[in-house]
Amino acid sequence: MQAAVYEGPFTITVKERPKPIIKDDGDAILKVQLAGLCGSDLHAYRGHQKTTTGHIMGHEFLGVIETVGPAVHKFKVGQKVMSIFSPMCMKCWFCKHGYTNRCQNGPSFGSMALDGGQAEYVRIPFADSTLETIPDNVDDDLMMLMCDIFPTGYYGTMKALTKLMQNTETAENILNFKPLQSAPQLSYTRQQLKDVTIVCLGCGPVGICGVLTAIALGAGTVYAVDSVPDRLEQARNMGAIPLTLGDDDILSIIKTATDGRGADAVVENVGNRAAMRLAFDLVRPCGVISSIGFHQSDLPFDAFEAYSKNIDLNMGRAAVRPVFGEALRILIEHQDKLSSFISHKMPLTEAAKAYDMFEKHQARKVLFTL
Amino acid sequence: MQAAVYEGPFTITVKERPKPIIKDDGDAILKVQLAGLCGSDLHAYRGHQKTTTGHIMGHEFLGVIETVGPAVHKFKVGQKVMSIFSPMCMKCWFCKHGYTNRCQNGPSFGSMALDGGQAEYVRIPFADSTLETIPDNVDDDLMMLMCDIFPTGYYGTMKALTKLMQNTETAENILNFKPLQSAPQLSYTRQQLKDVTIVCLGCGPVGICGVLTAIALGAGTVYAVDSVPDRLEQARNMGAIPLTLGDDDILSIIKTATDGRGADAVVENVGNRAAMRLAFDLVRPCGVISSIGFHQSDLPFDAFEAYSKNIDLNMGRAAVRPVFGEALRILIEHQDKLSSFISHKMPLTEAAKAYDMFEKHQARKVLFTL
Asked: Which of B138, B315, B334 to mutate to test the interface with A (most CBs of A within 10 A)?
């Protein structure tokens, strides 16, 4: 079969590879119809992430099931399905407790541990929990966003808003001395969300899905920060207030808009030191920073600063499985705002060109057709 | 009147000072009956916290109201009351939203901005929101814990457990694809808490109140870490598993007890670099660190580590007002476990001696009688 193989930094070659076969009872083999090129593919492509060479790239794909192992019960041969970006066993302690982002048995697609889906066929471990059906009312191209970027963007923003609501108590509850009869409960209301100011740092594919999530969940004021005009235009069309990194005095704008306090929550989608520091400076005391960006450096604030600001910080990659349903609901409801999301569809044979374009920000989102 | 005055590091002098008078309409003047010596008084006493000299120390006290300003409506002259450690206006944005720990108008008792209560009389700004009545079924000595250490210890542990429950989703909810009709809700059940392993780092006055909170809220397994045998004995009597810093291999014990995962939550009550690093090492992926200790250094973990562990971190001082009722309920219900908490009662005239003993860990908790 044909596959896009990683042969070193800036070198993707489409070449012949053996068709995958069932290895474990829970495996399925998928005949790929669409495969996505994702921002995180660029970590290896650019050489930032050290890895061996020779594996097939890609962790976003959908297609038709060609074979299933004997332990696959939810899916049948011939069924059209999509895959979540990382297989999960749903049997380890972490999966059982909803932390599928820390599954102890699931290797990552498109890595040295597991070939990816930028190929004619791909092997899916733990098929029953890694695959998802495709609802009738969703277009295939749109459904491709559900493999990674939409639930990841959803997760970062949802975490910020959920944590924020958890930190909020109304003055009414507080002033009435009223010993509680049970443990504290989260009060999370649409009304409270209307008063929220949230800043989304970074409007790449994941960040823009986070912007849409903030709008869809009902956050009152959503700022979107990036340096790329096209991305900011997308954010504006979704209902966010765009701020241009490098041009706008972002800190001063947010402070002025919040009577000097700062934003209630900041979602950090970028994954570098400068973005994290900006997040810290923008958030108000007792506010929330939700960081979904992949970080490789130190934390750009110290313990005294974090103590003095009563900071609430959540970091790390998304648990897709627990949020899949809610994220999909929002995707379907707001699909009109994502109609121009996929900028390029190209045959897999043009993978090398596609990586080059995507790396140079010349494509918003690329899908490979097979 | 007589008052314990800060005259520089390691120098507390009891001397004559003018009796305070009403300055603002919301003030009350309290005739002090009991005043506490708190661990945070030691920050200035030891010279770690830079401050001017000449102010009256102390932020824990109860007594009888002698005068009230015209805007005080909830309390009357002659009423017996206690004070929360820091006045709060309940009118600024932060107070109105429950973040009384970041009140924009309330100076701290026992600081250069506001004389404290280790004196015969003390002025209470924002008396209606800063004072609390004393329930009939609570002893005065015990109620002194409600000025600061008990709600602070409660807050640190409650934050850890509440955040933990917020992060938890059952596998059942996850595996059933079910688009939600509303925003995510916190599921917080006694049953889930039974499975929780929580580590309380530091069993000084605040830490031990946090240990009791963890037991009272129903956390299944509570570890208490300190180096002082007397503190660990207290923790053991409350139902915690004591671990001796320096003797026990704490990391190995916690890892073994959790099948290699680490603790679900760690409460950091100490406020130094080593304790924060231990907290990070002890917590499992997707776990919670709640840090109530006062930090002055950098954070002893980097962004890559925090990303890779999906860390959930909450820092900063307690918001007492929102948790006062629930904390008091627990204090009353579990008061038998705190019967030996107050180790020394001394007249205020012996303040210099008391500070010296307390600083040397020769007293668990000191109250001054007036």
From this structure: B315
